[in-house]
């Protein structure tokens, strides 16, 4: 049998390795389902502010479709200068088959003016449509309409389902504003 004096040394060496292994496995599982994203633009203010840390559910749309009003993280075809493309959080305003129109600063979906309490002071600028959202595509707008880069920008346009990275589900930081992100 081994020397009983060595047993505490072996346990002292194995315990941190086990703890580290469990933490790595838990982190891997967590990151399989969620993507932490730091907000770097003010396109979704007041809901999402610059430097908010948000969790994106990467599996949100494996069992159900995108819904009107949800905030999603999506890719664009706008190059970021480093060989990648910009990603934005925007609100889903138009689903496939919806008719979208922006006129006189107001947004209309299927002929009905949207009640948008989440939009800050500015109304939507420009005139768009009426246009029909193609199959498999989505029309996105930022809540902070004036500076937002969204579907009104020809570089973004309609968003394909394969561009949607997931749904914003939880604000982690700052702690004073942490909580679920719902259809605010």
Q: CATH first level: which class?
A: Mainly Beta
Q: If you compute it from the alpha carbons, what radius of gyration comes out, rounded to the nearest whole angstrom?
A: 22 Å
| Proportion of residues in helical segments | 10-25%
Query: What sequence of helices (H) and strands (E) makes up the elements?
Result: HEEEEEEEEEEEE
User: What composes the largest sheet?
Assistant: 8 strands, antiparallel
Instruction: Compute the number of strand runs.
Output: 12
Q: Which CATH-level-2 architecture?
A: Ribbon
Query: Can you tell me the CATH superfamily?
Result: Umud Fragment, subunit A
Counting H and I runs of at least 4 residues, what is the number of helices?
Answer: 1
| CATH topology descriptor | Umud Fragment, subunit A
Molecular shape: elongated
Q: Beta-strand level of the residues, as a percent range?
A: 25-35%
* Distance separating the two termini: 66 Å
Give the uncertain stretches in residue-range form. none
């Amino acid at each position: 049998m081994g020397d009983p004096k060595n047993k505490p040394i072996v346990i002292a060496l194995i315990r941190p390795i086990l703890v580290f292994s469990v933490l790595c496995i838990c982190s891997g599982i967590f990151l399989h389902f969620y993507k932490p994203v730091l907000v770097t633009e003010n396109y979704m203010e007041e809901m999402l502010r610059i430097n908010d840390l948000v969790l994106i559910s990467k599996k949100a749309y494996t069992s159900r479709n995108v819904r009107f009003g949800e905030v999603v993280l999506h890719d664009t075809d706008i190059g970021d200068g480093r060989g990648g493309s910009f990603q934005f959080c925007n609100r889903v305003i138009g689903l496939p088959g919806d008719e979208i129109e922006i006129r006189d600063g107001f947004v209309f979906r299927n002929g009905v003016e949207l009640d948008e309490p989440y939009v800050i002071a500015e109304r939507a600028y420009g005139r768009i449509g009426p246009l029909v959202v193609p199959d498999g595509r989505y029309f996105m707008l930022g809540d902070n309409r004036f500076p937002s880069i969204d579907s009104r920008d020809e570089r973004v346009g309609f968003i394909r389902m394969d561009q949607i990275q997931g749904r914003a589900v939880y604000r982690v930081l700052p702690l004073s504003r942490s909580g679920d992100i719902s259809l605010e």
